[in-house]
Amino acid sequence: MSHQDWIVKSLGITVVLTPMLVVLVKGFWSLVGHPMRERTIGRFVTGGGAVGLIAALGVLAMMLITGERHVTLEFGNWVVIPGEYNFNVKFVFDRLSTPFVLLSFALVGVVGAFAVRYMHREPGFNRFFMLYALFLLGMIVTSLAGTIETLFAGWELVGLSSALLVAFFHERPGPVRNGLRVWSVYRLSDAALLMAAIAMHHMKGGGDFDKLLGSGAWPEGHSDLTQHQALVVGLLLLVAAAGKSALVPFSGWLPRAMEGPTPSSAVFYGALSVHLGAFLLLRISPILEQSALLETLVVLVGLTTAALAAFAGRAQTDIKSALSYASLTQVGIIVAEIGFGLRIVPLVHILGHGCLRTLQFVRAPSLLHDYRIMENAMGARLPRLSAAWEKVVPPRASVMFYRAAMERGYLDNMLSDYVVEPTLKILRVCDRLERAWLRLLAGHNAPPTAVPPAEKAEPATTTVLEDLA
Known about the structure:
By secondary structure, the chain is mainly alpha-helical. It is built from 17 helices and 2 strands.
């Protein structure tokens, strides 16, 4: 190994291990019952992000100096079944993952510094930053994943931390209910990604992206899958991307995710998490090129999402909901760009849009305060600018459109009927089967519900489950 290769790999290992160490140290201090002080937590999380950002910049600089476009870090096979299955941990630095890692470290660090002051004296301050660090780890693992299994691990960490932060204010029923809805949609997305991983193993004997996507560094790779194979794997991955990025028909959960604290909403659903679906489609772009039908479906999903988000966003009165739909509009356009065969343009679009939307989310609370000061000084409300089309649309049609926009295209109802309710029913069936199995193991004379009083659900949680029933 040459000296330059050693430097690149050392910096790459630093990028991967930094968020892991932040999570482990933060979690250890929480488990031993000695949570850190607010100032210490802020310095620790932002310092970890700064170290990771510097290391990622070093990797980028060395890649530019050496001209290397594809740097891999392999940590060996963890599970090997000859001829059937192998699971290896592999990370890849290329022209797609490196910019996304830089964006993740930069935005998480900046918003983390903002959150230290925003969450000051909040009872769940320590819990917020523990989940925040877990989200950073998930983003780095997902961005650098060189195998479908590694990507799935990071994908799960992002989903878990996102859902828990949506339900951060768990003393109220609303955040808990909406966190359950977000988690239910994520379960469907994760199931599709897992099925795609199984299909990849059957087709290629492994989940290595280098084998699946063919030779050549991104975006120059060419997959050797047949058109039928590409369509099957691509459809599963499109469903996974749609659930994670709130694309149609899963757009209904996005405004519900705004129940979480503003810092997490800014970095999750304004900048990073909402773009993970587009990132996944960019990663598998050589597969998309193998099927014209698949590319057409990607374009249709993207344009439909953009149109619906622009339509519903005009009727939102809450600034965070309006910004979330504005983000979704741009994500839909990015997905359509990917379907049209563009690669660098959607990547640049993601980077620019993530930075802009994060600034808007963070600025939103103080912006409302400035508006109140202006209106108090004027003694009247600020004038509302009406669009030209509002003057030509009949009043009855305008009311109908407004109602449809307020109902968010009725996607919430569809999610409740076809995703959330079936998921909750399956979970309740599994719970009954588990209790029956425990009664059988304990003896037939055991009480039907042998749950200690301390482990019974809180009244607020019970009410939420009854409302979802």
